[in-house]
Amino acid sequence: MPFSITRAADLNSIQDNSKLYACFYGSSPFRESFAFSDGKKDASINIAWSFYVLKTGSNVTLIDTGFSDENLASKWKLKDFTKPERLLESLSIDPVKVNRVVITHLHFDHLNNLPLFTHAQVVISRQDRDDYLAKKPSGGMVYNEAVAVVLRDDTRTHVVDKMETLEGGLIFEVIGGHTRGSSVVRFSHAGTRYVLTGDECYLCANAREQRAIGVAFNRQANAAFLASIADLATVILPCHDPIIFTKFPSVKPNVVRIF
Ligand SMILES: [Zn+2]
User: Fold this and answer.
1) CA of 105 to the centre of ligand 1 (A)
2) Res 139: pLDDT
3) What's the pLDDT score for residue 140?
4) 178 CA to middle of ligand 1, Å?
5) Are 136 and 228 in contact (CB under 8 A)?
6) How many Å lie between the centroid of ligand 1 and the Cα of residue 107?
7) Three-state DSSP class for 224?
8) What distance in Å separates the CA atoms of residue 125 and residue 144, rounded to the nearest whole number?
9) 15, 104, 162, 193: most buried, per Cβ within 10 A?
10) pLDDT per residue as tens digits for the range 27-69
11) Top-tier CATH class for 19-257
């Protein structure tokens, strides 16, 4: 059964027996000024490309999907490119059995594999859903009609205007700093707070050093979000920080377990 949406505001603690994995599907150079608004245009850093999988009992939620298009992988110079479905296979997850896919924003590396998850409920901000369907240009927006088919289907796709607590205790919050509808997912687990930042943080350093991202629709909104996670107790989980894959224990090749 797919998850249904609840609006209860107090369900922000997810079940103790949940497991959260980060999946790494490649790495590449990235312009420092894209990652940090004060970064150098002619300097390059190394980034990871990743997404997250939350398992609670037999329920599987993905936070972003990654992409499997080899042309995009070579365009963005990905090294060690592994298709996300191979990583899911290593975790014994069949894409058609994934219950829910939460999309942080409309960029290709966050939603291009959406059509693989034929039975999943999809959650995305109304703004980014509408911008995607309207083909509004935004850096990293690569229109894919198969993705649009899913986003257009109201029986599959649930849109959030500002903030909503999803079944299971995930808080989906629209920030609007990176893209117009860019969102994050917050929750607590076993007494620790976590935030899955999408690209509101490219790297943990955006939060730790309070340095705004370089690719921003609204820098003020991004800075306000970074200020909201400045406390050291919150575990920051971005999609592009290689440190995630050395900081947490590896359970399969290119997969680490956060908890
Ligand atoms: Zn992005």
Assistant:
1) 7
2) 80
3) 81
4) 7
5) no
6) 5
7) helix
8) 18
9) 104
10) 999 999 999 999 999 999 999 999 999 999 999 999 999 999 9
11) alpha beta
